[in-house]
Amino acid sequence: NLSGHGFYDDGKTAETDALEWVSDRDGTIGQGALVTSAVLSPGRHQISLIAGLPGVQSTASIQIEVLPTDS
């Protein structure tokens, strides 16, 4: 699961609508504060949460490693 949130510059108003989760390998993987069914390809990913609308966005990122499943 992925969960996150964003706030406007006033620090009080939460961004609840314009939240997008993106993998640098797989592209958009979900929208909203919680993503529960992301399927990622094996390998290293930079996962970013983009909050806000174009021109007033903020981004937070983390790197993860997805291991291949045994067949």
What is the rounded distance between the termini? 23 Å
Q: Please state the overall shape, judged from the principal axes of the Cα atoms.
A: elongated
The secondary-structure class comes to mainly beta
Number of helices in the DSSP assignment: 0
Mean pLDDT metric: 88
- Helical content class: under 10%
Instruction: Outline the low-pLDDT stretches.
Output: none
- Largest sheet descriptor: 4 strands, antiparallel
Cα-based radius of gyration, to the nearest Å:
13 Å
Count of β-strands: 8
User: Strands of the largest sheet, in order across it?
Assistant: 5-4-7-8
Fraction in beta strands = over 45%
Elements, N to C (H/E): EEEEEEEE
Question: What would the keywords be for this entry?
Answer:
71 residues; mainly beta; four-stranded antiparallel sheet; two-stranded antiparallel sheet; 8 strands; 51% strand; elongated
Task: Give structural notes.
It is a single chain. The chain is mostly beta strands and 71 residues long. 0% of the residues lie in helices and 51% in strands. The protein has no helices and eight strands.
Concise structural overview:
This protein has strands at about 1-5, 5, 15, 20-25, 25-30, 35, 45-50, 60-65.
Question: Helices and strands in order, then pairings?
Answer:
Layout: E1 2-3, E2 6-7, E3 14-15, E4 19-23, E5 27-31, E6 34-35, E7 43-51, E8 58-66
